[in-house]
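Class, discuss our next protein.
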Amino acid sequence: MHTLKWPDGKRCAVMFSFDVDGDTTWENGNRGLPNGDRYLRSLSVGQYGPKRCVDRILDKLDEYGVKATFFVPGLTAERYPELIKKIDEKGHEIGHHGYAHERFAGKTVEEQIEIIEKTQRIFKELIGHEVRGFRTPSGDWAVETPKLLYERGIDYSSSMRGDDRPYRTVIDGRETDMIEIPTKWEVDDYVAMAYNMYPAEPCGQDRISCYRKVEDNFLREFRGHYRYELCISFMSHPQVIGTPGKIKILDTLLREITSKEDVWVATGCEIADWYRDLTREEASR
C-alpha cells in the first residue's frame, strides 16, 4: 500500500474540524413535525453551540496551540457574525457548509449554485474573502455538486468516507485539483452523543454513548491512523463536544496528539494545498 510522506518527516496528519450548525439542523428537522416551528426548546439545542460552546472549544484549541477548521452554514454566519469573525481572527479556517444546512442531493443545479454563491457572499462580507473548503450538510451531495463547487472557487472538500488519505476528486471523468479529505462516522461526535426530543435524535431515543467509551473510540482511531501513517479528520459539533462534560474528550485528544512531535496537525486548506503540490510533483517526474 502506498504510504504518503508527510511534511517535515511527520508520521501522520490530523485535522480538527467543527460543524457550527447553530439551530439550522433543528429548523430543518422540525419542518416535518406538526407545529414544528413552535418547538422552541429543540431550536435552543442548536443555539447553545454558538452561544456557549464555540468559545469553550476556542479556549481549548488555544491551550494546545492548535488551528482548526470550522464549517459554517451561511445562515448561522448571518445570525452570529461576531462569532464567525472571532474564529477567523484567531487564525482558524472557515469552511462552507451550505446556507441553511440543506441537503444538496435532490437540489437542482440552479438551487445548488444559489446556495454556494449566496454563502460565499456572506463570508466575503464578514471575513473579507470567500472560503475554499466545503463539507456537505445533512448527508450526501448530488452528482454534479463537486463540479459546481470547483467552478466557484472551492478547491477541497471534507465530505466523503471512501479513504483514509486525501485524494483528487474526479469530475467529468478526470482527476482535478479539488482535493477530498475524507472523514469517518467513527470520529463524528454527533453520531454517538447528540440527543434531542423534537425531532428525535438519535432515532429511537434509546441511549447516549458513554463519554469514556467515545473518547476511547476516538483515541483508538487516532492511534490506528498514526500506526499506518494516514490522515484523520475529526468531525465535531459545538453543541455536542463543547458541553462541560464532553469537552474533556477534546482535551484528551488534543493532549495525546500534540504530545507526539511526529504528528502534523493542520487545517483543511493546509492539508489540501500540501497534497495538491505533492501529487503535481509526482506527476511531473
